[in-house]
Amino acid sequence: MGPLSTLVVPGGPTPFATVALGGLASASVRKLYVRNRAALGPAGVSPRLWTTLAERLGRNARVLDWARALVTDGRHLDLEDLLRKLPSLAEVKGNRLTVAHLDQLAAHYLTTVAYAAAKEEVGPDVPTFLARARVFEVAVPAQAMEPMAEGMSLTPEEALPRLANLGLVEVGEHRGSPVWRVNPLVLAQFEAPDPARWHRAAALWFRQAAQTSRGWKRAETQQAWAHALHGQDEPLADELGLRLRGWLHGRGLYHDNHGLAKRHHRTFPRGVVALWWAGDTARHVGNVEHGRALLEQAAEHAVAGTEPHDKTAAVLHALGGARREAGELEGAQQALEQSLAMDRRLYGTDDHPGVSATLHALAGVLQAQGDLSGARDHLVQSLAMDRRLYGTDDHPGVSATLHAL
């Protein structure tokens, strides 16, 4: 299905995916190096390498102290035992530490020393909690992880700071509040039992986080949609996917839109929304025949099934456009007339943007058929509706209809 991803909105609010993680500020990491330069320098650890090590270890003071001891003299560790467990690190002793060793050092510490300490300090449920919480690819507030603690004695609010102190969890700040993520060095990927359940929980949290008084935040909406796909929650994925579809289409990001639509279609190959979204976006990236074939399937399923009328009307509208592009003007007119009749029944009025848009599309088909009088009548109706709806001629819909007239 592909990895989760975040749609970052240029100039928009900072999405969770861009939150900087780490316990120590960069300046503090540099100060630690200066204080230990006498020991770190001879071990081949340059300031740049130390900074890289700090980033890989989550800038956690406790973990960094462990790493410092390891790469200098190992007096506080059983270095020989460690090197037996990690043979590839044997070259570190007496030589220079390289970036290739850093992930091995951190992962070993986190999955042995830190895990054992966490079970003792936080509780025996820590491994299960972390496995579930790894469903979040980006840092989130503690309340987002509450469903992951179901059936456990621990609470995320209390456990996360303690787990962060051990390096098992990364911490950052988002709008003045802490956000958390399971350290990828602890668990490289999400592999908890019943994965769909935890993906659905994550989807519902991101859906809630996406809603504001000023509208939906796009980054969180895409996170919610991706989790809904992984959770096989088709109604939720459809709802969120259509929001993304409208936003991307409105900004002319047709290839991005088609990429998401293909992911949606791969997950729900017979879904009406999946077929509609994939078909409509295929048309806009130049694959007209394939797009039309998908829209024919979408219309067939929508008309025969139990889809809401507004969705069916939209599918028929898109199919009308695809048929017109293929030169099937009669079929295009039929689909658009079905869409128009359905919209009028649905909204109980002609003063609706959907009705106006379909009248405009029908006018184009009639014009292509040579019925200029019929085309003009439909455009006049569409123009009158738009003026009533928007109360001005300074609107793209009104302008487009005037241009067509």
SSE map:
Blueprint: H1 26-35, H2 37-40, H3 47-56, H4 61-72, H5 79-85, H6 99-121, H7 126-133, H8 156-165, E1 169-174, E2 177-182, H9 195-210, E3 211-212, E4 215-216, H10 218-230, H11 234-250, H12 254-267, H13 272-284, H14 288-304, H15 309-325, H16 329-347, H17 353-368, H18 372-390, H19 396-404
Antiparallel strand pairs: 1-2, 3-4
Walk me through this protein's architecture.
It is built from 19 helices and four strands. The protein has helices spanning 26-35, 37-40, 47-56, 61-72, 79-85, 99-121, 126-133, 156-165, 195-210, 218-230, 234-250, 254-267, 272-284, 288-304, 309-325, 329-347, 353-368, 372-390, 396-404; strands spanning 169-174, 177-182, 211-212, 215-216. The radius of gyration is 29 Å and the shape is elongated. The two termini are 46 Å apart.
Characteristics of this structure?
single chain, 405 residues, mainly alpha, two-stranded antiparallel sheet, two-stranded antiparallel ribbon, 19 helices, 4 strands, 4% strand, disordered N terminus
